[in-house]
Amino acid sequence: MIGFDRITFDNNTMQGKACIRNMRIPVSLILNLLANGMSEEHIIQEYPSLVHEDILECLKYAAWLATEEVYAS
């Protein structure tokens, strides 16, 4: 995937879900925490292996996914 160096997919890690840097931290978890009001600082405190750039990449990935075209029938 072009432009997402920190988002990885591995069938042996989290059943192939989008994760951060081959860790067992799914992108969906980070997005869910942000969407429910947890601050970036709190997320990094809870998951000390994460850095600011990981959180930004999750948001960029979500924005990229949202550009998908939906055709109503």
Keywords:
Arc Repressor Mutant, subunit A, 3 helices, 73 residues, globular, mainly alpha, 41% helix
How are the SSEs placed, and which strands pair?
Blueprint: E1 7-8, E2 19-20, H1 27-35, H2 40-46, H3 52-65
Helix pairs in contact: 1-3
Structure description:
This protein has helices at residues 27-35, 40-46, 52-65; strands at 7-8, 19-20. With 73 residues, it is mostly helical. It has a single domain (7-65), classed as Orthogonal Bundle (Arc Repressor Mutant, subunit A). It contains three helices and two strands, in the order ββααα. Strands 1-2 form a two-stranded antiparallel ribbon.
Short description:
The protein is mainly alpha-helical and 73 residues long.
| Cross-sheet strand order for the largest sheet | 1-2
* Number of structural domains: 1
Uncertain residue ranges: none
Task: Please give the alpha-carbon distance between the first and last residues.
Answer: 29 Å
Annotated CATH topology: Arc Repressor Mutant, subunit A
Oligomer: single chain
Helix/strand order, N-terminal first: EEHHH
Average pLDDT level: 93
The largest β sheet comes out as: 2 strands, antiparallel
What percent of the residues sit in helical stretches (DSSP H or I)?
40-55%
Tell me the Rg in angstroms.
13 Å
* The first-level CATH class name: Mainly Alpha
- Which term fits the overall shape? globular
The CATH superfamily is known as Winged helix-like DNA-binding domain superfamily/Winged helix DNA-binding domain
Number of strands: 2
**Strand pairing plus helix content: what structural class?**
mainly alpha
Please identify, by name, the CATH architecture. Orthogonal Bundle
